Amino acid sequence: MAEARIAVMGGSGLYRMEGLERAREVVVDTPFGAPSDAITVGELEGVEVAFLPRHGRGHKYNPSEVPTRANIYALKSIGVERVISISAVGSLKEGIHPLDMMVPDQLIDRTMGRPSTFFQGGIVAHVGMAEPFCPDLREALIRWLQETTENVHSEGVYVVMEGPAFSTRAESFLYRSWGASVIGMTALPEARLAREAELCYATLACVTDFDVWHPDHADVTVAEVIANLQNNVATAQGVLRRVLPRLDSVRECECANALDDAVITAPEHISPEARERLGLLLGDRFG
User: Fold this and answer.
1) CA-atom Rg of the chain in angstroms
2) Of residues 34, 38, 35, 39, the one with CA closest to residue 50
3) What gap in Å lies between CA 237 and CA 257, rounded to an integer?
4) Rounded to two decimals, what is the model's pTM?
5) What is the pLDDT at residue 28?
6) pLDDT value of residue 101
7) 105, 109, 211, 260: which is the annotated catalytic residue?
8) Which of 9, 184, 194, 238 could make an SS bond with 89 (beta carbons 3.0 to 4.6 A apart)?
9) What confidence tens digit (pLDDT) does each residue in 253-262 have?
């Protein structure tokens, strides 16, 4: 039975969802292990919302350890159709300042070795990722962000690094030369797995620092990130209160049909184990 159609994935500094009424915890097991934490489901402005802290309560998982496949699968299993990710990022551009908010439209993957697909072990799929974020969900976030704060960037390239260490100075300058806007550690493989699960996915990026490239600002530290996050989290919470109740119930984007032409494995060669493991994602496509 569906629990919620909208989910918020909390990042660093956002471990609980303020204002949820009639909140309850939902424990989900998945073929990919346990998610980062129990999923909290409750009402926000009259809408059922699921909340999952990406790093677990108490920040137990570093970016490389986050069980992203289990997180996305668990959300899908309780009826979620849209995921808003909250992510702390560093700025790579002069015009993007700490405490600004961004809704990125593109990604560059610099992660290494993170499980990034559901489709392996007897089944192969190639989903389209030219536009890695749901355009409709991005538009909704941008619209309500602009009503909440002045310091909003409605597009930008998000470089996803492996972490958990911050960038070297050479890396920071390299990413700037690529035209990247911000840098963080968690939007991938989340965006890719959300697309495979046919979920709408968008990131609300909270800018906390200037990474290590800016000559007039100190190099990024955890203390700086946490201090600025406290302000950004308050802004993010306000945006969520506005946007979640106003999302249309019907999805008109292509995210919901991302698998229609993506599975390349011939149906007769999909193993029974793969069918069972991915039945939630495949639906009745292959009988």
Assistant:
1) 18
2) 39
3) 30
4) 0.95
5) 95
6) 93
7) 211
8) 184
9) 999 999 999 9
Cβ contacts of 272 within 8 Å, gap of 6 or more = none
CA gap 125, 210 in Å, rounded: 37
- Quote the pLDDT of residue 254: 95
* CA 128 – CA 142 distance, rounded (Å): 23
| Domains of the chain, each with CATH number or no CATH | 6-282 (3.40.50.1580)
SS3 196: helix
Are 282 and 258 spatial neighbours (Cβ–Cβ below 8 Å)? no
Indicate which residue of 136, 209, 219, 284 is catalytic: 209
> What digits encode the pLDDT tens for the residues 61-88?
999 999 999 999 999 999 999 999 999 9
The answer to whether residue 219 is catalytic is no
Cβ contact 186:66 at 8 Å? yes
Q: Which residues contact 36 (CB under 8 A, 6 or more apart)?
A: 52, 53, 54, 55, 56, 60, 61, 66, 67, 70, 71
Q: Is 211 a catalytic residue?
A: yes
